[in-house]
Inverse folding.
């Protein structure tokens, strides 16, 4: 039998989880989920650097892409060095993939620019920041906001090239790029390279016009109105309305040159010239320099004046005058009488295929023509401004050519021609007129007239005497032939009397001669005072000024 009194039950404590604790656990899980959901939907934080916070408000200024809200400005503060504004923005997760290294931001607000008026909708809604997605594979979360909207969008096809100039301020962002007057692109950015000390301008050429850009293309500034008054006359060019307001840049191939290779990559550098004329002259980089010694005034001959051969430009004046130092150091600076002018004759202007000909052939050709009488002379290109140019021509009477040097430059022989030669001939004529004994001639003409009148009176008396002799009785007995002869002599003597027509005509001719000599006297004095009066006319007296009344 089993003793029940010695048997005892073992006691143990059982721990059970109370259902009440499920409530805070579930609440905590829901809170974590809500916190995760909040931060996951909060988006990515980025920093934007701006020059000014004008129009930007915390919580009200949105970030948009193609007019869709992708973020908002959360805070604005000054940078550590107070040089800029740092704005913190929150970008939605959907737009996070747009934040690449080449993404661009700019403030959209009312603007009046080259493309017209934009951003008018912001007058009511306020300014916002536009985001242009990048195409790079590298993410980035800190950006600098552009001052102006980009000229070309990231997805627009085209080509970017760079122009360099020694001076800044030639172009502005948005200025048009023209080809034969048609807009093919715009100026995108500009800056200044401190190391090379030159300004640079980045252009965007839209597709398909980028095919027009070749490695030998020339770029120059285009102003609204271009007026040049030179020896060739007045040249007036008027551009489009857009270039009248802002200017721009034009390009094309050099005149007479074949198209070069196509530009296949962005960033190709070109030189920016101030005018089309300077751009055209840049191809004439091979030339020969000569010194021309002129023994006449070079007033009106300026640097850049053309050197022409029978109307065809073959060079230009480099420096006028080169110096006042003369060939012979024993002469004074002014006593030698010649003024040196440095010119250059350009190879490409003389020969069509300049690269194949070379400067040696040009030098030999000029040397041969100099021996044939090729000479340089000054000629007037514009009577209004008095501008001169240098004309080359062949002169049969030229002195034999002899080689000479001046300050290391070969001397190109010169010869007077044109207005200078006419003035020289007029001066010689005046000298001859001054040497004429006009007063003595007038006196002798008067004496001749008086002697002629006296002789005619004597002839009249002889005729009267012969008439009396013929009427005498003795003369009646003379033969008829002698009587007829005496009568003829008598009639001839009477024909030269004061009342005869011959006497009157002779007296009239002598009076006309005397009048002509008197009229030539003022002309002689005028030419003596102003040798070029026959060409330019005499100076007219000033208009009379009315006398003030009492």
């Amino acid at each position: 039998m089993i003793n029940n009194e010695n048997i005892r039950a073992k006691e143990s404590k059982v721990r059970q989880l109370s259902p009440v604790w499920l409530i805070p656990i579930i609440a905590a899980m829901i809170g974590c989920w809500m916190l995760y959901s909040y931060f996951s939907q909060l988006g990515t934080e980025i920093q934007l650097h701006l020059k000014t916070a004008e129009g930007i408000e915390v919580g009200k200024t949105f970030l948009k892409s193609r007019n869709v809200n992708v973020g908002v400005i959360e805070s604005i503060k000054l940078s550590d060095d107070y040089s800029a504004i740092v704005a913190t923005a929150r970008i939605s997760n959907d737009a996070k993939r747009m934040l690449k290294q080449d993404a661009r931001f700019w403030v959209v607000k009312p603007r009046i620019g080259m493309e017209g008026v934009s951003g008018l909708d912001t007058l009511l809604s306020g300014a916002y920041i536009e985001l242009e997605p990048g195409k790079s594979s590298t993410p980035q979360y800190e950006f600098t906001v552009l001052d102006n909207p980009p000229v070309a969008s990231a997805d627009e096809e085209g080509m970017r090239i760079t122009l360099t100039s020694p001076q800044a301020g030639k172009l502005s962002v948005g200025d048009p790029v023209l080809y034969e007057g048609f807009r093919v692109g715009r100026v995108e950015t500009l800056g200044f390279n401190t190391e090379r000390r030159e300004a640079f301008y980045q252009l965007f050429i839209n597709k398909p016009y980028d095919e027009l850009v070749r490695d030998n293309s020339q770029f120059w500034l285009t102003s609204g109105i271009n007026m040049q008054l030179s020896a060739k006359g007045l040249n007036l060019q008027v551009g489009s309305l857009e270039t009248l307001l802002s200017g721009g840049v034009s390009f094309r191939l050099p005149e007479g040159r074949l198209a070069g290779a196509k530009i296949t990559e962005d960033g190709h550098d070109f030189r920016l010239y101030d005018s089309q004329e300077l751009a055209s002259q840049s191809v004439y980089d091979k030339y020969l320099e000569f010194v021309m010694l002129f023994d006449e005034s070079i007033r009106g001959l300026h640097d850049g004046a053309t050197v022409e051969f029978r109307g065809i430009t073959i060079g230009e004046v480099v420096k006028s005058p080169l110096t006042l130092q003369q060939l012979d150091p024993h002469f004074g600076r002014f006593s030698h009488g010649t003024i040196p002018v440095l010119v250059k004759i350009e190879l490409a202007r003389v020969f069509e295929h300049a690269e194949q000909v070379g400067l040696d052939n040009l030098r030999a050709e000029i040397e041969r023509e100099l021996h044939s009488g090729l000479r340089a002379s000054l000629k007037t290109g514009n009577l209004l401004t008095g501008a001169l140019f240098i004309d080359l021509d062949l002169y049969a009477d030229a002195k034999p050519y002899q080689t000479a040097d001046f300050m290391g430059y070969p001397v190109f022989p010169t010869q007077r021609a044109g207005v200078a030669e006419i003035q020289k001939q007029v001066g010689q004529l005046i000298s001859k007129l001054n040497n004429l004994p006009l007063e003595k001639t007038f006196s002798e003409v008067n004496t001749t007239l008086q002697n002629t009148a006296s002789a005619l009176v004597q002839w009249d008396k002889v005729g009267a005497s012969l008439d009396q002799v013929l009427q005498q009785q003795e003369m009646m007995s003379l033969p008829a032939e002698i009587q007829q002869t005496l009568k003829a002599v008598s009639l001839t003597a009477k024909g030269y009397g004061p009342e005869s027509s011959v006497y009157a005509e002779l007296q009239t001719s002598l009076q006309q001669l005397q009048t002509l000599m008197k009229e030539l006297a003022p002309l002689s004095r005028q030419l003596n005072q102003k040798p070029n009066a026959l060409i330019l006319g005499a100076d007219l007296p000033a208009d009379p000024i009315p006398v003030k009344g009492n």
Summary: The longest helix spans residues 438-471. The chain is about 30% helix and 30% strand. The first strand starts at residue 44 and ends at 50.
